[in-house]
Amino acid sequence: MSTFIKDFIEREKINRRNFLFASAYGLGGAAALGALGPSMARAALTDPTIAWSYRNRTNPYWNEIVSGGEAFVESLGMSRDALTHLINEGSSEKSLADVKAILAKTDGNLALAIDTNDAPNARPVVEAVAASGAYVSTLWNKTDDLHPWDFGDNYVSHMSWSDEGPAEQTARILLEAMGGKGGVVHLGGIASNNPAIERLQGLKNALKDYPDVELLAAEPADWDTQKANQVMSAFLTRYGDEITGVHCANDTIAYGVLEALRAEGIEDMPIVSYDGNPQAVQLVADKKILATVFTNPHWGGGITASLAYHAAIGHFKPSEEPKEHREFYGPTILVQPDDALEFKANYLDSVPTYDWTDFWGPSNGPIVYK
């Protein structure tokens, strides 16, 4: 476990150094787009560029997202290299600049799948895409007042996950393992990210039924292993033995937490996480993590790209679809020690083959706003 986590942290350091020298569709490469206007949707695009905009590939979750995008591209008879990668390294500014640059380069002949990095960045991305006549499907992050049906056909779809309920499930597993008493800390994602907000809320919901458990602290770790390691080390310095459980917003955060605990000689701290990455599932099987939640990123990445592409080429008309086909939840599966190895064999060691034209098959209903 320790070797894997140290290797993971080192890969992240290398990736950050490389990013400083990266220039793929950077800020200087984009001609400024004109003033945003009404949708310029064409009847259909011909051989559109297919692009995925995401944080980075060193994160196992995002590697699976992009692997799904590559699998979709291969299903079209293309090489996986035909997928254009827009890597933003967690920068919303770079995310938007990359989108504007590729729109200028392709003259809007684009099918884009994207996680906009944070919710406020979704609107300028969508507006730029719609103004150019391209097509976009978003994943995870957008504001509640931004909807695909407000942009005709160009904003094809948005998929997120109903994280609050599953995060509450994992929290209850954690709080029970703590014996219903003690102190818990939460390490979250980027503070403005929808999943980070919902996963913390899931913990807070569960805590209402555990009056003898105190939430000692909740701080963002930005979905990052290194930052999680630093945050957890600071928690241990500040709270020491008061900490009897850790609620992690994703698996890569849990890796940093485990390393911080190991450095202090702590091997049996109850921990839960989220995402269902292969390494985390193995840690669940080994009872180093109590539970994680699988969101099927391979399917999510492939179907998001597929929706944008098939709308772009005129395979279907988004504006004629019901709203539940334009904003919907992805699937989730709770993974615990008793079923971790079986789950790993069925979903991770051998990735299922998906029909990329079954756009909503595994989805989990329309997004509900509170």
Provide a descriptive summary of the structure in words.
The protein is an alpha/beta fold and 370 residues long. It folds into 2 domains: 8-161 and 296-330, Response regulator (Rossmann fold), CATH 3.40.50; 164-294, Rossmann fold. The chain has helices at 2-20, 60-75, 92-106, 122-132, 164-177, 194-207, 225-239, 251-263, 278-285, 297-312, 340-349, and strands at 49-54, 83-87, 110-114, 135-139, 155-160, 182-188, 213-220, 243-248, 271-272, 292-294, 327-329, 333-335. The strands form 3 sheets. It has a 6-stranded parallel sheet, sandwiched between helices. α1 (2-20) crosses α8 (251-263), α2 packs across α10 and α9 packs antiparallel against α11 (340-349). The longest helix is centred in the N-terminal third of the chain and has 19 residues, at 2-20. The chain starts with a helix and ends in a 21-residue tail after the last helix. The model is unreliable at 11-41 (pLDDT under 50).
What share of residues are in beta strands? 15-25%
Strands of the widest sheet, in order across it, are: 2-1-3-4-5-11
Largest sheet: 6 strands, parallel
Helix content: 40-55%
Predict the CATH topology of the largest domain. Rossmann fold
Low-pLDDT stretches are: 11-41
What is the straight-line distance between the termini?
A: 40 Å
Coarse structural class: alpha/beta
Order of helices and strands: HEHEHEHEEHEHEHEHEHEHEEH
CATH class of the largest domain: Alpha Beta
CATH architecture classification of the largest domain: 3-Layer(aba) Sandwich
Number of domains: 2
How many separate helices? 11
| Whole-number mean pLDDT | 90
User: What integer value in Å does the Rg equal?
Assistant: 21 Å
Write the CATH homologous superfamily of the largest domain.
Answer: Response regulator
InterPro entries: Peripla_BP_I (IPR028082), SBP_2_dom (IPR025997), TAT_signal (IPR006311)
Pfam family, one: Peripla_BP_4
Main location: other
Protein name: Monosaccharide ABC transporter substrate-binding protein, CUT2 family
